[in-house]
Amino acid sequence: MKLIVLDRDGVINQDSDAFVKSPDEWIALPGSLAAIARLSQAGYTVVVASNQSGVARGLFDMATLNAIHAKLHRELAQAGGAVDAIFLCPHGPDDGCACRKPLPGMYHDIARRYDIDLAGVPAVGDSLRDLQAAAAVGCTPWLVLTGNGGKTRQGELPPGTRVARDLSAVADALLQEA
Ligand SMILES: [Mg+2]
Ligand SMILES: [Zn+2]
Questions:
Q1: Which CATH number covers residue 26?
Q2: Is residue 99 a known part of a binding site?
């Protein structure tokens, strides 16, 4: 199977320093849903792995997060794409969980769920912790320059990180290389 792992905020939708706390605040980035649609149509199974510490911080609850993701799924379906599953870490930075990126817990869950080796699987993020979690399990980290990506690019990146303008450019590159 062809799998791709995406961060959510700053990759698929606009990020916010104040957190994305409601469906209304969830706003797709230009071209991101069309990019996922092209990946879906090319046979990719698209999954999301997202830190959502706003849950632990009490900024929104799981019901609201589900409503946000219902909007994501709905808009994506209208664009002709699909996300197979959304893995999330609802914990805060001090909770000591194994799933909050840069730890690779969600990626291990993904490998188990799909029963595949993640070596070389593209994993797209806009923050260093996305790239670090991806690299820890042998995924190929892709940095997009949307969201925090411009800032992240200034720092040191895990070896082998590929850089693309946005999710659309990642899809272009992957589909061209196929
Ligand atoms: Mg992000
Ligand atoms: Zn967690």
A1: 3.40.50.1000
A2: yes
Q: Hey, what amino acid is at 108? A: H
Domain of residue 35, residue span:
3-177
- Give how many domains the chain has, as a whole number: 1
Determine the distance separating the centroid of ligand 2 and the alpha carbon of 86, expressed in angstroms: 14
Q: What is the pLDDT of residues 30-86, one digit of tens each?
A: 999 999 999 999 999 999 999 999 999 999 999 999 999 999 999 999 999 999 999
Residue 139 annotated as binding site: no
What CA–CA distance (Å, rounded) separates 76 from 68?
12
Nearest-ligand number for the alpha carbon of 104: 2
pTM equals 0.97
pLDDT tens string 100-117:
999 999 999 999 999 999
Asked if 166 is an active-site residue, the reply is: no
> The tokens of 168 are what?
């659309």
H or E element: which one contains 168? helix 167-177
Q: Nearest bound ligand to CA 94?
A: 2
Annotation marks residue 95 as catalytic: no
Q: Which amino acid is at 146?
A: T
- Measured CA to CA, the distance from residue 32 to residue 77 in angstroms comes to 13
